[in-house]
Amino acid sequence: xxxxxxxxxxxxxxxxxxxxxxxxxxxxxxxxxxxxxxxxxxxxxxxxxxxxxxxxxxxxxxxxxxxxxxxxxxxxxxxxxxxxxxxxxxxxxxxxxxxxxxxxxxxxxxxxxxxxxxxxxxxxxxxxxxxxxxx
Length: 135
What we know:
By secondary structure, the chain is of the alpha+beta class. The chain has 5 helices and 4 strands.
């Protein structure tokens, strides 16, 4: 069975970040429509959700790889700032166990200091301002 699926998907585009976004967005909109009930807005959300899900599967099974790749690149370019913000936040949370992260009071530069060093004087590498913090 696995071989049959692999043969079927050969030459097709497959799943990419834009496809995952479309699928999740479609499912969220469909579930949101369930809370809105049978009103006109609920029906519009229901149809919009299914359009997103169908477009996701259309992209997944498409043989026009270059066009789907271009769509994905455009999506990634437009969402770069949002994705990088969350990646930075994730990175900061990983480092919180080992480091304190302070902000320079003068230039707002973030400075990473190892934990457990007691009260130390921190010198900002960007502007040279010194301030005292507990690590």
